[in-house]
Amino acid sequence: MEAVLFYIISAIILGTGMAAVASRHMMRSVIFLLFALLALAGLYFLVDFNFLGAVQLTVYAGGIVVLIIFSVLLIHHIESKLSEASKSRKWMSALLSLGGAIAFIYVIIQNVFPAYAESTTTTTKTVGEKLLDYGEGGFILPFEVISILLLASMIGAIVIAKGEPKQTIKANEE
Amino acid sequence: MIPGIGLNEVLIVSTLLFFIGVYGFITRTNLISMLISVELCLNAAVLNFVFINKYLYPDKPEGVMYALFIIAVAAAETALVVAIIVNLYKKINSVEVHDMDTLKY
Fold first, then answer.
1. Domains of chain B, start order
2. Cα–Cα–Cα angle for A80, A83, A89, nearest 5°?
3. 59-88 in A: which are within 8 Å (CB) of B?
4. Is residue A71 within 8 Å of B83, Cβ to Cβ?
């Protein structure tokens, strides 16, 4: 049952991912990305990583996709289609990507990975304890660095998107 | 782990997802579409982290932690990229790659 679910979800991920990079309507491609992210969250739920699945849903599907939709609506004319790459360029890049994928898959299928049938899982409690653990194997340093990074990117985004004030632009033109 | 599914199948799925992202990154000429392709690549990486953790080291939480950090970095990156794109559109009225030939602020 779970195996069938895995195949269905993988098909959804790959199909919507392909549609996201191939669709010529910008809005549709963002919505296809949203579905790929939702299906990925489904995979995480399938292996019992509930907290990670919830984070994927809230941060990716709830935050990032909304941000991208926001920028599309601000910038792109919704009826106009995206310009298409030339045929030869498309074929060349498809061939390159396919070659890379085949090389990777060739290496992967030559390895046999052991599978442990243990049913232990990483609970939210473990994640929280590890995040604030300053002993061996703790993650307090990356946690703090990430918080500083988020603060810096928030300030940077505000400064960049605000642009120059009107007076300085006028002064520059004069 | 998922009964009946080995690690190989999962790695093949994430490889295909990654190269779909690479294909989109090469062929698209619009900045927002390129951002979408990069998101697909990042998600393939997260998928690898999560499933290798689940299959090979099920009693350790490191893979999940790294997945959380990747998601946080991706959120920060997207916020910055969207700000840059909006500002570029205000300045040169276009988000096509061909029109971008200046770095001067």
1. 7-99 (1.10.287.3510)
2. 165
3. 59-60, 63-64, 67-68, 70-72, 74-76, 82-83, 85
4. no
- Which CATH number describes the domain made up of A1-90? 1.20.120.1200
Q: Which residues of B touch A93 (CB under 8 A)?
A: 23, 26-27
Which of the four pLDDT bands, split at 50, 70 and 90, describes residue A79?
confident
Average pLDDT over residues A139-156: 92
Using alpha carbons only, how large is chain B's radius of gyration in Å? 18
ipTM value, please give it. Answer: 0.91
Nearest-10 crossing angle of helices B31-56, A65-75: 170
* B41 vs A: CB within 8 A: no
State the pTM of this model.
0.89
Q: Band of the pLDDT at A2, cuts 50, 70, 90?
A: confident
